[in-house]
Specification:
Largest sheet: 7 strands, mixed
Shape: globular
Order of helices and strands: EEEEEEEEEEE
Helix content: under 10%
Structural class: mainly beta
Oligomer: single chain
Distance between the termini: 41 Å
Low-confidence stretches: none
Length: 124
């Protein structure tokens, strides 16, 4: 059974960068699409970056497009999220998840496994 563990969160000033990682263990995640979600207190969870199983396709929420880059390393069984030009509104808990199906229009869905999250705090 797949387990996911996020890392790389922290506190940065606006304009700074962070790279999140999501390490999978227990089984390979190569058959699955994957997604980075975020959820701030009192707000709904939102999927900010999606990637297909092969890594050939990605999809970003408009709020992060051009600033965030999702990638995956099959050999390391790890998902990444490079976040540049961070803004205070990016402050949130970030989670990774695996999914069973990917659409180029809507991204990854039918989620099967979730990580525990890593906190990102951006100060102005």
């Amino acid at each position: 059974q797949v387990q996911l563990e996020e890392a790389g969160g922290g506190s940065v000033q606006a304009g700074g960068s962070l790279r999140l990682s999501c390490a999978a263990s227990g089984a390979t995640v190569s058959p699955y699409c994957m997604v980075w979600f975020r959820q701030a207190p009192g707000k709904e969870r939102e999927g900010v970056a999606h990637i297909s199983a092969t890594g050939a396709f990605t999809l970003y929420d408009s709020s992060v497009k051009g600033r965030f880059t999702i990638s995956r390393d099959t050999n390391k069984n790890t998902l990444y999220l490079l976040m540049n030009n961070l803004k205070p509104e990016d402050t949130s808990m970030y989670y990774c998840a695996t999914g069973r199906a990917y659409s180029t229009d809507t991204g990854c869905r039918s989620f099967t496994t979730w990580g525990q999250g890593t906190q990102v705090t951006v100060s102005s």
